[in-house]
Write a structure and sequence with these properties.
Low-confidence stretches: none
Mean pLDDT: 79
CATH architecture: 2-Layer Sandwich
CATH topology: D-amino Acid Aminotransferase, Chain A, domain 1
Strand order of the largest sheet: 1-2
Largest sheet: 2 strands, antiparallel
Helix content: 25-40%
Radius of gyration: 13 Å
Number of domains: 1
């Protein structure tokens, strides 16, 4: 079973979470990053997260504090943990 993280909370794949005020739905903008993990380590993780922060800044997204724990969240999703 696959999970995703949305605003610091884990959901099962296929769970609808979109809200009417969702910026991506309202304006069609968004950003994602795909990161490979091998043996619990993110491959080129620093570079991926630097690119992610840069893209968020260019799009003038507000970066929630919880994003700074993204490496931990990414690892947890990959190993199937929900916390």
């Amino acid at each position: 079973m696959q999970y995703f993280n949305y605003n610091g909370k884990f959901y099962k794949e296929g769970t609808p979470i979109a809200e009417p005020g969702n910026r991506g739905l309202r304006y069609g903008d968004g950003l994602f990053e795909t990161i490979k993990m091998v043996n619990g380590e993110l491959i080129l993780g620093k570079e991926h997260f630097n690119r992610l922060w840069h893209g968020l800044s260019l799009l003038q997204f507000k970066i929630p504090q919880l994003f700074y724990a993204s490496k931990t969240a990414a690892r947890n999703v990959c190993v199937g943990k929900k916390k």
